[in-house]
Amino acid sequence: MTHHVIIGGGPVATNAVETIRMLDGGASQITLISDEPAHSRMVLPYWLSREVPREHTYTADDAYFQELNVDAKIGVRAVRLDVTGKSVELSDGSSVSFDDLLLATGSSPISLDIPGADLPGVQPLWSLQHTDQLLKAAESNGRPHVLMIGAGFIGFTLLSAMHKRGWQLSVVERESHVLPRMLDEPAARLVEAWLRARGVQIQCGTEVREIVETSDGKKRVTLASGDAIEADVVVVAVGVAPNLELVQGTDIQVDHGILVNDRLQTNVPFIYAGGDVAQGPALYSDQPAVHAIHPTAVDHGRVAGANMAGQEVHYPGSLLMNILDCCGLQCASFGNWADPEAEAMVISNPGMSIYRKLLWTGDQITGAIFIGRANDMGMLTDVGMIKGILQTQTPLGEWKEFLRENPFDIRRPYVARKVAHKLAGATLLGRPALPRHFHFAGKQPTTTVGPAHSMLVQTKGE
């Protein structure tokens, strides 16, 4: 019986497990090793904002693993990998042998190398434990002042959660504007204005030099500009780095992440990698990339799982994308959104907090940025249509000039170029996707059809 070992408990791991079981019907042995309960990091902001309890962040439990016949070793860590001997040593002193291995070890927050970075109340906000720490720190203060160091995508998802709690918020970013790896400067300025209008203090273009604890327990943060900010809690969100410790000293090839091919295999054919730790095929690039985003992790898990189960599945590449609700303002960027050589079409209305930028290579959209309120973005489904155009790599031909004149009418070229038809006929594994096995407390989701449904699905002839 083939023995698959999976190291990790995030979306790569759970999707790989379900894919293997979908294809082999239980004919293999699966061992999953994770130092944390299987959960979704993308749900942590909802727990932080009190919209869901902690348990709703979980993506698997004992019953789930038993149903899929998985030996789940939760709470232990893989500490040493023996590639030649095909075994993994664990933190409890035991070891597990394998026929093939999936490394889904994720990433960890980067720490600050400054005085005071190790003080109590100075912390990252990346894990279940970190979220619990922040919630406990806020228990004695109904409206704590939280200073966030770093204004990237991860930090801002959590900023929005804290804003929902009514906390006092300040942000310091060393780059010239917020969300520097997601938005260009004009788009970022709209976001900054939106946040300042909602009471969020923002300082860009400066660094933190020192953190000290005051006599009343607050944290005094000194900036390179000479300014100082006092806060109850300091959240460090300056980026993440792939967890590569397990492969150091092995023959597994590493660049920024673990290098993988389009089957998610490393240079060692029986070892796979996926998610934040993997550097693999990317759309609109001839170079492998690390895309530390949830959709890529899901895709990686499914493709790796299929190949581990004996199929031959090739991954077309991940699409770089970030979609963020920033305290009520929706932001999105896709593909090569910062390409200086691309032709740009821009529409900007700062007064209405609207910004759209389409980047073109010939007649093909290769990148995009969107800023706007819900009615200008999600409610129009424009973001989803642009994502579909990019994923299918559809040339738009004469519709390029149409969009130059009608930047808010993406629906017409989307329909005319049959993007939906391409998406409907495309599958990652060559078969329709199945619903996830796990549901919180075993409850099945229910849906109700609203009054607008018939209007949306009926044809003109009806």
Brief summary of the model shown:
24% of the residues lie in helices and 26% in strands.
Written description of the protein model:
This protein is an alpha/beta fold and 462 residues long. It folds into three domains: 3-108 and 241-308, FAD/NAD(P)-binding domain, CATH 3.50.50; 122-238, FAD/NAD(P)-binding domain, CATH 3.50.50.60; 328-424, Enolase-like, domain 1 (2-Layer Sandwich). The chain has twelve helices and 25 strands. It has helices spanning 11-24, 44-48, 62-67, 128-138, 153-164, 185-196, 294-308, 382-392, 399-405, 411-416, 419-424, 453-457; strands at 3-7, 29-34, 70-74, 78-82, 87-90, 95-97, 100-103, 107-109, 122-123, 145-149, 168-173, 201-204, 208-213, 219-223, 228-231, 233-236, 240-242, 258-259, 271-273, 278-279, 321-326, 329-335, 343-349, 354-361, 364-372. A five-stranded parallel sheet has the order 3-2-1-7-19. Helix 1 (11-24) runs parallel beside helix 7. The N and C termini lie far apart (56 Å).
Structural class category? alpha/beta
Physical arrangement of strands within the biggest beta sheet: 3-2-1-7-19
Describe the largest sheet.
5 strands, parallel
**Portion of residues within helices:** 10-25%
Q: What is the name of the CATH architecture of the largest domain?
A: 3-Layer(bba) Sandwich
CATH class of the largest domain: Alpha Beta
pLDDT under 50 segments (min length 5)? none
Q: How much beta, percentage-wise?
A: 25-35%
The CATH superfamily of the largest domain is known as FAD/NAD(P)-binding domain
Radius of gyration: 23 Å
Mean pLDDT: 94
> Which term fits the overall shape?
globular
Structure summary, number of beta strands: 25
As for the CATH topology of the largest domain, it is: FAD/NAD(P)-binding domain
Number of continuous helical runs: 12
Q: Tell me the quaternary state.
A: single chain
Please tell me the total number of domains.
3
* Distance linking N and C termini: 56 Å
